[in-house]
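Whiteboard transcription, Tuesday session. T.W. wrote the structure tokens on the left side:
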């Protein structure tokens, strides 16, 4: 098909309790092993926990709230408009990928 794997961009990850390294070679080159990486907007942790992704989402939502400070302070913008901005700009960032988070008691 003429497709090749870019070994410089390809990374590996061990997920679970095992805390070792797994040297995977492709075309004679050992692939970089990472603890966490972002895939389709969600942070995948090597521990298998959702906590790092939840913390990241909260941080991204907080940054968005700060960037929208002019809107929150504006007297010309109605409360209804501010709620709509919050729901579309902040909640969507906060809750994105939440269906994949693991629930623990």
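and on the right, the sequence the group agreed on:
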């Amino acid at each position: 098909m003429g497709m090749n794997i870019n070994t410089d961009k390809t990374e590996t990850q061990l997920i679970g309790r095992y805390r070792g390294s797994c040297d995977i070679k492709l075309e004679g080159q050992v692939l970089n092993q990472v603890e966490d990486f972002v895939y389709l907007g969600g942070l995948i942790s090597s521990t298998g926990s959702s906590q790092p992704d939840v913390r990241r989402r909260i941080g991204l939502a907080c940054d968005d709230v700060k960037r929208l400070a002019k809107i929150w302070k504006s007297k010309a913008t109605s409360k209804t408009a501010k709620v709509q901005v919050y729901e579309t700009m902040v909640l969507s960032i906060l809750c994105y990928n939440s269906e994949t988070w693991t629930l623990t008691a």
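Someone added at the bottom: The two ends are 48 Å apart (CA to CA).
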